[in-house]
Amino acid sequence: MTGGLGVWLYAVTSSRDAGRELPGGLTGVAGEPVRTVVSDDLTAVVGSVPLEVFGEQPLRGHLEDLDWLETTARAHDAVVSALVRRGPAVPLRLATVFHDEDRLRESLAERRADFGSALALVSGRTEWGVKAYGDRAALTAAVTEARTAKAGGGTGAGAAYLARRRAQLSAQETIERDAAERAEQIHTRLVRHAAAGRRQALTDPAVSGRRDWMVLNGTYLVDDSSTEDFAETVSGLGVEFPGIRLELTGPWPPYSFAGTERDPP
What we know:
Helix content is 46%, strand content 23%. It is of the alpha+beta class and 265 residues long. Strands 1, 2, 3, 4 and 5 form a five-stranded antiparallel sheet that branches. A four-stranded antiparallel sheet has the order 7-8-6-9.
C-alpha cells in the first residue's frame, strides 16, 4: 500500500438496512464522502483514502503523532457515531484499511458469522462506561467502621478505642485489596443489569491527565429500554460503597463489543 486509494472501513451494518440513506454530508478521516459496499447480507460503510497517507507504512509514523492521531480518531468516531444513531452497526477499530473493495468483500465473506453475531448482540443496545475512583481516606474510614462493628467495641472506652485503632491500622494496610474487592463487586452487579460487560485496562494518569485513583474501568452493553435502570443502579452503588466514586459516561458506539477485529489484507 504505497500509492493510489485504499478503503478505510468505519463500520458494518446489515444489508436489510441498506435502504436507509447515510447521514447527509458525512465525511471521513480524509475529508472523503462515506459510501457503502454490499456483500450479501452485510453492508460496509467505507471511505476512499490516499494510501500515501493511510497506507500501512505511512500509518505507522502517523500513529505516533498524538495530534494527528486525535484528529483522525475524532473523524473516525464521528462517522461511527452517526451510523450508530441511524441503526445497529458494528464499529471497526481505527485504521482498518483494505487495498481495494475486492479485499474488503473477501474479508466480509470470511467473517460473515462474526459480524452477524456482533450485529445481533449490539442491536437495540448501547455501550456505557463506568469508571470507579477510590478516595483513600474515605475508603479507610469506611472499612474501619465496618471492621469495628464486626469485631464489636468491647467494654469500656479504652477497649473500644483499641478495637477501632486496630481496625484502622488493618484498613490502612489492606486499602489496595479492599478497593479491588469493591471494584469487583461493583462490576459484577453492573453486569447483571447489562447484556454484556467488560473490565478494561485502568487508564494511565499520564494519558488521562487525572490524578484520581482509578479502581475500575468498565464498559457495559445495555438494552436501550433499560438505560434508566442502569443509571439508577450506578447511582445506588455509589451510595452503597462509601469511599468509591462512580462516574457514568456515554452513550458510546459499541466498540468494546464488536469482537471482529483482525488485521486487514
